Structure formats: structure tokens, C-alpha cells
Amino acid sequence: MMRVRFAPSPTGQLHVGNARTALFNWLLAHGRDGTFILRIEDTDAERSTRESEAGILDDLRWLGLDWDEGPDVGGQHGPYRQSERLHLYASYANELLSGQHAYSCFCTSTRLDADRQADLAAGRPPRYHGHCRGLSRAEAQARIDAGERPVVRFRVPQGIEVRFRDLVRGEVIFNTDVIGDFVIVRSDSRPQYNFAVVVDDALMEVSHVIRGEDHISNTPRQILLYRALGFAPPEFAHLSLVMGPDHTPLSKRHGATSVTEFRVRGYLPEALVNYLALIGWSPRGAAPEQAEQDELLPIDELARRFRIEAVGHSAGIFDPEKLAWMNRHYMKAAAPSRLAAEALRYFTARGFITRRTDAAMDYLVSLLPMAVGSVDRLEEIADRVRFVFQFDPAASLASPEVLGVLEEPGAHDVVAALAEELASAGRLDRETFRAAAGRVRERTGQKGRALFHPIRVVLTGEAGGPELDLAVPAIERGAELPASSGVARVTGCRERARLFAAAVGVRSA
RNA sequence: GUCCCCAUCGUCCAGAGGCCCAGGACGUGGCCCUUUCAAGGCCAAAACACGGGUUCGAAUCCCGUUGGGGACGCCA
Questions:
Q1: Where residue A398 falls among pLDDT bands split at 50, 70, 90?
Q2: Residue A3, beta-bridge partner list
Q3: I need a labelling partner for A493 at 20 to 30 A (CA). Which of A7, A172, A179, A484 fits?
Q4: Which helix (DSSP H) or strand (DSSP E) does residue A415 occupy?
Q5: Coil, strand or helix: which one is A385?
Q6: Beta-carbon count within 10 A of A182 CB
Q7: For residue A355, what is the DSSP state?
């Protein structure tokens, strides 16, 4: 039975690199009918918070990475928060202590620092010098009784090779000469990372440890711990890291790095999941018969094709452009009602929709065709149709693009003629708008771009945007909505033409 | 500094000795479509880091160099 786990420490938001690690674990579990465990590594009381734990759980759920065992759902191997497992670590630490696999260390940080500096200066790998290695338990106990607070160090057998077969990298060998006796219990008696992880993974019967490459050098330490504790080590797989475009670890200055940020900016979870799965892995190798459609795949299909052995060895660079492309794809594929529900918050944030009502949602859905397909993110949908809700000729006239349109020969004639034609027109739909545009063409002699570009500017206040055939009816429908609909007031086309003509100061010919 | 990992188009991948003067996707450029901006369609440019081996034959195997990344904590 395959059992995998994702073990974040709740010290901030879920980073996309870690989300990818979680995803690979999830894919492996789901492709093989395994169990996915969520464990919270909150032994660092200083930095761990319940808020970030909740945030991480939220982000994982949003991504669709559900877990079978975890702090909120429980399971047969709980508790699933390290802070609630302290008694277990204490018990195993004592076992190691009495078996001479570990010893108390009273070295001061000053001394440790000095040793480290000396090692570095001499070109040796910095490691614990072993001052307290020979201390007897009686001596140690005496010092503890005298009030000293030691750490517990694991006695690393020197001069041996620790090797393991990494599922993605193959055989990896470390010599213990480069590993010093490391701390397993801190002076305040909280467990140190490597120790807690081994106790937990063993007790939780984790069969495959899949984690970031930054943990590869922890692996020999952990294997040594497994042996000393009498546990069988699991399989290991180390995923290469995700970097920024400049080949440095993905960080804030590269833009959005946390799942929350992508969510807030209007990415769809299936897009992020699909994109993340493709960093360091390709579904293609698994099903070469399907050359087509081998990148855009739903999470279940990804799981079906996923093979940990096929994961790449080299670091991947996070490419926001490709993510944007995928998001565009998934927005086009999404049901309009869902898209409207997801995009609603951006409309309310901008004051375009003041209250969620059926009428408002229907109207939002009707606006979607003007934006979906041409924008990358949900947030941009609202920006793309902004002209519907905001119409201010004076502000538009401050735009160089708009001014440029109006400077075209005959543009003013079109503005004037349109205002007149619309003054007598009723509610415009696609057909009546076209008819009106036709009359303006006849009156001014302008056609094509010279005709429609000024019309666009007059009616939308912008030099670019969705097709007028769509935009005009959308404005008109909005203008008819009562205030009780929850949709902000929309200025109708006739009014727009009048206001714009006045602002430009054109007179009818 | 020491140890570990890595190395195919700008980016993500395919390629598990001959199928490759290297294939797909994003991005880029051009063309088409078009009343605008996008979107969409078509086409194009673009890579096996370098040097040695092994082999009839290497992007694929081995060694080295260079480059990149990671680790070396009472952080995880």
C-alpha cells in the first residue's frame, strides 16, 4: 500500500514550489490508489502560526489536492501536527539515549561557532567537533541536575557510506565523514526537524518520501536515524527546485510566488495545477501514442499518467507566460456561470456590481463573451468591460490614443452625425446599431476604420476593446437595469453620444 | 571551502546508441482574418555547454572541464 505525505511548516503562505511538491505527491497517490497524508511541521514555535496553517489548507483545497489523513480529517496515524506529537519524540529520543545512539551535549553556541569557523578556514566541511561525545550519562545527568540544559545529539557512525536509491536520481552516496553529530532534540526539548520527520514518517507508515531537492542532504542523516530506531527506511524521491527567470530561487521579486497570490490575481486552480505538473515532468513520455493534447490535461488524467521515475533531474524555471496561456485556455473551457461567480469579486471591488443578485449575475454572464478568450486572468475580465460601467468623456479626451482617433480626417463629422442619429433612436440592439452606423456612413462618407474607430471612441471612451456589435448591446442592456438589480448605473449609448459630442465641441453639419 | 545534485531551442519538455542535419508547447517574428485592441489560423527563426574517450555509429554510455543549483543551524 502506497502512502505518501506532504509536510509543510505553517510559517507563511503556500509557495508554488511547495504546491508542486504537494501535487506530485497527490498525483502519485491518486494514480496508484495510494493514501495522501497531510502533516503539519510546526515544531518551530517561533514562526509557526495557526493562521498560516489554515491558509495552507485552504490553498491545497482550492487546488483540489485533498488529503486522506490530516489534522482536520484525522486518520489512524494521528495526531497530524508535530506539536501534538511531542511525547512520541521524547520517547524515541530516550530510546536512542539509552542505546548510546545519542548523547547530551552542553557546548555553547560560542564554541560551536568558533569550531565552524575553524573548519571553514581549514577547508573542511563544518561539523560538530564531538566535545561532548565522550560524556558519560552520569556526568550528563549531574550537569542537568545542576541546571544546565543540553541538546541531544545523534552519534553519527564515522567513516561509512550511506547510500540510497533515489527514485528520480538513481543511486546517491554520502560519506558520513562530512556529517557531524547533529542535534535531534533542542535544549528546550523540542525535536529537531530530521528527527521528528523520521519518527513521523516511520510511525505514519509513509512508503514514499517525495520532497524538494533541498532535502537530499538530509536523507543520509534520516537513514541513519531509521537504522538506529530499528525502522525500515521508505523510498525517497527528490524533486528539483523551481527557480525564477534569473535562475535564482523563486522569490518575491519575481512577482507572485504563493498560491494565494495567484488565486487573488484571478488564476483558475486547474490552470495552476496543470502548469505546475509540467515543470519537471511531461505526461507525454507516459503515453507516446497520444502526441496530441499532451499538455492540457485535467488533474485526474495527469494522475493516471504520472510516473515518479519520469520526473526530470534539472531545476525548472517558473514561466508566468505559459501559466497565463494555460489560464486563458481554462477560462475559455470553464462554464460561464462558474466564471461569472469567480469574476464577481473583481466587479464588486471596482464598484461595477454593488450587490449579488440573479439579475446582476445574469448580466455579468452576458458580458463574458466580450472578455473571455482575450484576457489572461479573471481580474482582467472586469478591466476589459470597464467601459460599460465607466463613461467619462473628459477623462477619455486626456488619452493620447483617443485624441489620435479624433484627429483623423472626418472623425468630428462622425461624432456629430452619430449623436444626431442616436438622439432619435430607441434602445439599440445589434441590428439597430448597425443600421444607425450605416446612416452615419451615408451622411459623412466615412467607412470602415474611419467610421467605426470614432464611433468606438464616442460610445466606449476607449480606442480599443471588444467588438462594437457586442459592446453596444451590452451597454444598452445595462442601461435598462434598475438600481435594485445590484448593477452600477450604466450610461446608455444615446446619452454617451450626446455627452461626447458636447465634450468635443462638435456641431452638427 | 567541503559534500551532493544537475546540464537539449529564450523557457518547459520529448528523445532511454542508429528512426534526430533533433520533435512538441509557451514566448518571439512574419502572414492571414478583422471596423479597433485582443483572440484565432498558418508559416518561420531558435538548442544537443566544452574537451576527451567507448563504439561501425552518441544528444543518448564513461571521464574531465566549465557553468548552475542545493546542503553544511538548537530553520524546516
A1: confident
A2: A35
A3: A484
A4: helix A411-423
A5: coil
A6: 20
A7: S
